[in-house]
Amino acid sequence: MIKKGIRRQIVMHYFIVVFSTLLLAEVIFLVAIRSYYYDSIYSHITNHIKQVEDYQKFSTTMNDGKDDLGSLLTVYKLSFTEMQILNVQGDVLINSSEFQPDESLKTSDISQAQSGNIGRWVGRQPNTGENVMAVSKMEQNNGQDAYIVRYVTSLERVNDKLFNVTMIATAVAAAVLALVLAFSLGLANSIVKPLNTITAVSAQMARGKFNIRIKGNYKYELGELASTLNYMAQEIIRSNQVKDDFISSISHELRTPLTSIKGWSETINSGGYDPEETKIGMEIITKETERLIGLVEEILDFSKLQQNEMKVSFARVDLKELLQEIMLNLWTKAEKRSIELRIDSVDKPIVEGDANRLKQVFLNLVDNAIKFSHENSAIDLIVSFEGNNVVVQVHDTGIGISEDHLVKVKDRFFQVDPLNGGTGLGLAISQQLVELHHGILLIQSELGVGTTIVVRLPRLLEDDSPADSPELPMLPGASS
Length: 480
Fold this sequence. Notes:
Layout: H1 6-52, H2 66-76, E1 81-86, E2 92-95, H3 108-114, E3 119-124, E4 131-141, E5 144-154, H4 156-206, H5 220-270, H6 275-306, E6 315-318, H7 319-336, E7 340-345, E8 350-353, H8 355-371, E9 378-386, E10 389-396, H9 403-406, H10 426-436, E11 440-446, E12 450-458
Parallel strand pairs: 7-9
Antiparallel strand pairs: 1-2, 1-5, 3-4, 4-5, 6-8, 9-10, 10-12, 11-12
Helix pairs in contact: 1-4, 4-5, 5-6, 6-10, 7-8, 8-10
InterPro entries: HAMP_dom (IPR003660), HATPase_C_sf (IPR036890), HATPase_dom (IPR003594), His_kinase_dom (IPR005467), HisK_dim/P_dom (IPR003661), HisK_dim/P_sf (IPR036097), Sig_transdc_His_kin-like_C (IPR004358)
Transmembrane segments: 12-33, 162-188
EC number: 2.7.13.3
């Protein structure tokens, strides 16, 4: 007995469908064969009875017509068939066998003949139990009912042939069912065995063995399932590696400012230093504390985004003004590396969004551009309209990103250059913040040539804002 499972379900379904189909086909076939044989016998006897209608010389009286009825029996009898002549009441007057019934015959063929039709009856002879067919027809003489001609033939030989045909058909059906059973078992095994293999490998993956892979060239949905699980394991390994790198990186990022804070705190507490040196130490402590706060806030923002708890307050935002403010914030950092920040914007690129969150996005993008640009280069911020969208491009001619890194650069914890500092969450957070504003963020880059980051946001067409805000002062060397 096949144990419960997919194998059993497949085998049972195939078997039941084929068995039902074969059973129906065999019943129809056997009924048709039986009807064919029985109808052939009936047709043969009926055609023979019609020849009797030409006989017009018989007497219907018990005494005078007996010799004529005997002649009728001699001329129209059939081989292996008993011929009977009955009166209109159903009593046997004469027959071709030695057996003479004592009672009137009451079978349905006689009643049908008495009503003017050719009667047919299939059943068992009361005295012998033999399976027979009887065909009866009322014959007339001078327009009056004269007698009933009745033929009775045995169906035993026909039934024997039908039984043999039934046995052959049953054997064929059994052979077909055996083939279907073998085929369904093979089909079930071709599905269940790969599933068992996939299940076993998946169980090992669930126990943390992500280096194991599902091997085998499986087809169709099973192949897709195996490929998906292998890809999942690969991604988990990559995510774990990225997470480990992140932990290592964030540990370094946290240790460096904490070391500085601790060192200067101990130095200040020890006393004996002049006020100028103490002021420098306090500035370093403040700077490193702000750096720590930035790291923690970045991690908290990412956590909120992952849990869908990030709250945004939508209002009208002029992206040109926002980018000018960002340029002011980062101008000192860019100036230290002789990097020129330039803006080229259309008038009133208005979007609906959270100004603080959008500022966070573009601060991260421009800060990254400064971080990975060469000295004495330029970074262009280009704002344009594209249909019902506002498109912001942050373009630099820095080190660029390789193709291998480009597909991963927006993944959480991923860092193109771990030695450059950071958590590897900036672009991941920016991506999700842009999506919260129903926009998209695209990165186009070529190693050694530069990078262009494109942010596309829905444009707010209705201008129902109050008076225009005054433009922020331009940076030295900036163009608009």
